[in-house]
Amino acid sequence: MWVKGRIPCSSAELNIDIVLQCGQSFRWKRDLINKSWQGVFSNKLWILKQGSSEISYEVLSSDAECHQTKVEKEQICNEELVDYFQFNVPLVPLYDAWSQADEKFKKLALRYQGVRMLRQDPVENVFSFICSSNNNIQRISSMVEHLCSSYGKQIAVYNGQKVYSFPELSSLMDESVERNLRTLGFGYRAKYIQKAAEIIEQRGGRSWLVNLRNVPYVEAKASLVSIPGIGEKVADCICLMSLDKTCAIPVDTHVFQIAKTYLPALVEKKSVTHRIYSEISIFFQELYGPYAGWAHTVLFSADLRHLKDPPEKAPKRGKNQQNNTVQKRKKNTRI
Questions:
Q1: Which residue of the set 44, 73, 195, 233 is catalytic?
Q2: pLDDT tens-place string over residues 241-261
């Protein structure tokens, strides 16, 4: 059964076309014909559309929720959507503060409004970003879908395609997981996924991960980097995107190059050492304040090739040009 609803939201508070394709989550697909986005979170299939003053949604409800009334289902969906996009955090005042602190940000903000952080499920976030190591967005998305179709539960059928939830930790712990994932092209990440699931389960499972939201940033990051497959950069991605650590600054090649425009001493540096990583993080944290990780994501999004022209302002293209653009986008990389 489909549940429909809408939430008031201006484009200054959310630009869905940027947020859902800037490498935060890898389970969203764009429908250019219907001008909508299809994705999965909270074990539901969501279809989202952005209007001038609202986000409308259609959610495929599971059989387990059939006892709920239409009003109850809509209320639950509203709460889940508000939490996912963190609408409790007003974005416009943050943009104003960041623009006052940084003239470069001020110039970008005119074209990249509405870039906010998703609040994702920590389990999905951890394993998605283990897949992200030395990878690009298209391939990460493919790996995440393989994880879901191989070890998740079917939650819907949409346009003739089966839709799956993200796997539970218990389904990723078996030693056979590594062998199977290697056959699916995960490479060395296959071992990390199986071992990480095993270690997280030993520490308390999902509840242990979720509880990292309640500890200081430094402690949460230290806990994450002790898990196989999670280095400093991936730990910061997880801290920022699912553990409420709004100050976390993931430093990848994009951010390294951006930082060079702020820190001249880095111009001649060829790689990111631990010292340089810390220097960049501290600089942006001091520049932007408690929500530095959010501000950093605006800079990061503006540096992605496929987002150079924000979707709402991109020129119209012919069919052949659109096909060429799709091929070019496949080459974009993520942290």
A1: 233
A2: 999 999 999 999 999 999 999
